[in-house]
Amino acid sequence: MVAAWLLLVFAAATVQAADKPDTVSMVVDYGDGVQVHFTALPWQDSMTVLDAIDAAAKHPHGVKFEKRGRGTATLVTGIGKLKNEGSGKNWLYSVNKKDADVGVGAYRLEPGDAILWEFKAYDYNR
């Protein structure tokens, strides 16, 4: 009986692992009705959002990301031809619909994660 239960648990875990893609997705929303979608960027162990934007930039139909700083202190200052405005609109990102609270080089991704970049003003009331 215990062996049968363990077999069921193992089988369920295997199916769940198989259902998780070894990719991440990313959407760049310019805020004017235009979006660029990357539906399957290859995920790798210890991948960060910085790694994902580098992969998107290298894609044959990629988007240019402008950055300042290095590693965990990297700041995205522009995407395409839109640059951060400082007190106005800026490039902000979320993962799985949760606003990020760390830099792009510090946010570790998991397989299946969905990154959204939006050009918008920061809502300080959130």
Calculate the terminal CA-CA distance, rounded to whole Å.
51 Å
Q: What's the level 1 CATH class?
A: Mainly Beta
CATH architectural category: Beta Complex
| Helix proportion range | 10-25%
The structural domain count equals 1
Q: What is the N-to-C succession of helices and strands?
A: HEEHEEEEEE
CATH topology, by name, is: Ferric Hydroxamate Uptake Protein, Chain A, domain 1
Strand line-up of the largest beta sheet: 2-1-8-6-7
Mean pLDDT: 87
> Given the helix and strand composition, which structural class is it?
alpha+beta
| Strand elements, count | 8
Strand content: 25-35%
Q: Could you explain the architecture of this structure?
A:
- By secondary structure, this protein is α+β, with helices and mostly antiparallel strands.
- It has a single domain, classed as Beta Complex (Ferric Hydroxamate Uptake Protein, Chain A, domain 1), CATH 2.170.130.30.
- Helices cover 22% and strands 34% of the residues.
- It is built from two helices and eight strands; from the N terminus they run αββαββββββ.
- The strands form two sheets. It has a five-stranded mixed β-sheet with strand order 2-1-8-6-7, covered by helices on one side.
- The longest helix is centred in the N-terminal third of the chain and has 18 residues.
- The radius of gyration is 18 Å and the shape is globular.
- The N and C termini lie far apart (51 Å).
- 17% of the residues are buried.
- The N terminus is likely disordered.
